[in-house]
């Protein structure tokens, strides 16, 4: 199946073509009932007289209302809020030395994918910029069946054993008495749990880092988290960790921005992904693999089966093996994005599991949840979930069965069906589980090789730039500051002190609390009733690696500025030449320029031409843009000076460390805003050269400005 990716809104691949058979449009057609009867009146029910009672006989009314009454399905128990897109995966090099998976060995293939990004804790209608881990789930429609890589945007997870998943989710979800707070971890039940389960600290630190408030889904890394196995045609295995590296770099907004974006545009990430794809700026990631020989299983200071640990890239480099491009928006949110069902247990020959106890539990949960979410065991027949290759087996019936299975034999072995469907030998592509030797006793326990809960969080903190550390300290201070119970905050401070003294002291200072020297109960209370607490106490932090730049967002800036947004503040009489010079330079590089004026409609420039206004000042906010540009033009600047919101708009951009450029007369606004306080700032421009703005956009923010912005009141 060679399927060249095509560009534009009509980008197709084998899966999007397959979906076309289910796509329906009423364009140019009569309206009908679900039974195909043409409808003559869709506005009035059938009544006994003009002002009389409505008749039960009205099958058109009954059908319409009944269907409406049942439109909703249960939202996902976690990751309810999300957005998705179609695209393709393309392989750079043949990896048959490691795996027999076709999409990882055949470089001529284009494998269709459907990718869904999500937040974890919030409901389906919650705002996009919640401080939260992001889901990064990829469904590959391979020639050998569906492979799902159901990962997150952090390389580790909160817990080590699936047994604790309901607990941590109950702790982070809104508190059950009042169902408050929505899509927020800053509350007592969450910290009560985290402070008693030190295994959760590591992923929690990632949740307090800038990763948890991304600028865009397009600017996030993705991680498969667990150690999986690659198995080649000879049955030989290697361990593997999966990574997605975004071409646009990894970037985030500030917390102040996140809070304001949630009000100004709760669909900020959803809109950003949709708009970028519609404009032809297709987001792209490279697939990276860390491949580990089986012989190295016990080589590291941590256990490869422990999902709260990453494998530092300094120990095993990430090998870039292919690219993922998202080039088509779904046609229907519900049918595709809502009904797509991912499952870490959807694997293809050449990939296999490990004994990671978190992964093992997930293998149960994902099918189980679809049974109530999608209503029964036939959810694999929903178009978005169907594999590209045909399905033949002896599973039958159940709610909403679409397939019409022919013949008498729905069992195997059989003679009445000619022995069909028959089995595939391994050489014919039949899946065979990796033969792993297992010796041991049946035991409900946790390996002590999982007990180092502090070394990697400490490594993570050490690896951050000063601005990332500052953001994390403030995030902890905010979240714990929202908690009511001091004993919970104090346990958290004690735990933070085990990771990094600076982190703990700075947070303690902001909370107005002291760090306790010890805590009364065992540190780890996440153990069995008869377990020996000493056996499960976390070991003190070790330093087996001083720093890992890959953990920081500060070292991997990108040159890509596609679909970045620049606010251009204008009023009647603005300088058209300067604006057009800026516009032509930046739009060629994919930047979106929005003309923002005190009113909607059009705005007249100094050449007496009318330009359409993209947003009236009252309908938009500074936080929705990556940079601000103010062209000159005396009349324009005079009018802007009369708008109180203009200075707020500029000052907010300055506070959030964005590029701001003032041309000619606009320098009066430089004087009136906080811009004049930042002498020599590398992202504040007077008579800005478009190339400088492009450069500043690529750097994302001038974080060096941040410590100097405390006085800006916005
Ligand atoms: Fe999960 C959904 C990622 C552990 C149980 N999970 C879900 C989604 C993502 C992840 C991205 C949303 C998929 C989509 O877009 O539809 N989950 C993870 C990662 C984990 C993880 C990276 C650890 C490494 N999950 C995990 C555990 C359990 C679950 C340990 C239960 C034992 N996850 C679920 C679920 C969900 C789900 C309840 C909700 C909706 C769904 O599956 O389809 O089954």
TrEMBL record:
InterPro entries in UniProt: Catalase, Catalase_AS, Catalase_clade2, Catalase_clade2_helical, Catalase_core, Catalase_haem_BS, Catalase_immune_responsive, Catalase_large_C
PROSITE patterns membership: CATALASE_1, CATALASE_2, CATALASE_3
E.C. no: 1.11.1.6
Active site: 79, 152
Protein name, per record: Catalase
Covalent link 3'-histidyl-3-tyrosine (His-Tyr), residues: 343-366
Keywords: Heme, Hydrogen peroxide, Iron, Metal-binding, Oxidoreductase, Peroxidase
Organism of origin: Sphingobacterium allocomposti
Functional description taken from the UniProt entry: Decomposes hydrogen peroxide into water and oxygen; serves to protect cells from the toxic effects of hydrogen peroxide.
